[in-house]
Amino acid sequence: MEKKMSESYTVKTSNVMPPDTNNHHTLYGGRLMAYIDDVAAIAARRHSRSKVVTASIDSVDFLEPIHLGDVVILEALVTHTGKSSMEILVKVSKETLENGTDKKLAAFSFLTFVALDDDLNPLEVPGLIPDNERLKWLDETGEERSEHRRHRRERSKALREFFATDLFD
Ligand SMILES: CC(=O)SCCNC(=O)CCNC(=O)[C@H](O)C(C)(C)COP(=O)(O)OP(=O)(O)OC[C@H]1O[C@@H](n2cnc3c(N)ncnc32)[C@H](O)[C@@H]1OP(=O)(O)O
């Protein structure tokens, strides 16, 4: 079974309020990362129609500060699938409402979610049908990003053993 990429498209829009901001009056990076994980999880559930967990988050590139009073817009969709894994792109924009046209790319990230069955075992997910050429490019280049993650995971196995012991031993 295959599903269009647009079927997982998810948008989250929030006001940036004082409790969301740091002493520079800009959105906390950690708060933005929580928003990214949340919107990506919804996109993954829309594609798989199953339980999902975050397996990994690639780097988050913070490109522009998002100021108090701005509106933050997160767009997410599934951009590549494996057997049970789904790569999700989250694109973050900021908008100053008083200045309607001023919408800027503020951050982006790729995350990997894994679909799980009721016993919490990895579950096969539908394949993807790209809606247009840009989305096709994202799907085609997804295999290379997935390969990078596999290599990183291999390398992190050694770190896993290292971190399993007390740092001060
Ligand atoms: C929405 C949330 O906030 S969830 C909370 C945070 N997340 C968690 O607690 C998840 C904890 N981790 C886990 O439960 C497990 O490690 C899992 C489910 C992610 C993977 O389980 P494993 O037993 O390693 O499964 P397995 O090796 O069969 O891999 C399943 C798939 O996950 C992919 N995968 C596993 N680990 C990673 C990773 N770190 N990064 C990217 N992909 C991964 C595999 O490539 C495989 O993909 P495929 O089926 O498309 O080929």
Structure description:
This protein has a single domain, classed as Hotdog Thioesterase (Thiol Ester Dehydrase, Chain A). The chain contains 2 helices and 8 strands; from the N terminus they run E-E-H-E-E-E-E-E-E-H. It has helices at 29-48, 133-163; strands at 2-4, 10-15, 51-57, 61-62, 71-81, 85-95, 103-116, 127-129. The strands form 2 sheets. Strands 2, 3, 4, 5, 6 and 7 form a 6-stranded antiparallel β-sheet that branches. It has a two-stranded parallel ribbon with strand order 1-8. The chain is globular, with a radius of gyration of 18 Å. The structure holds acetyl coenzyme *A. This is Acyl-CoA thioesterase. Residues 6-119 form the HotDog ACOT-type domain. Keywords: Hydrolase. Residues 1-22 are annotated as: Disordered.
Question: What is this entry, summarized?
Answer:
This is Acyl-CoA thioesterase. The chain contains two helices and eight strands.
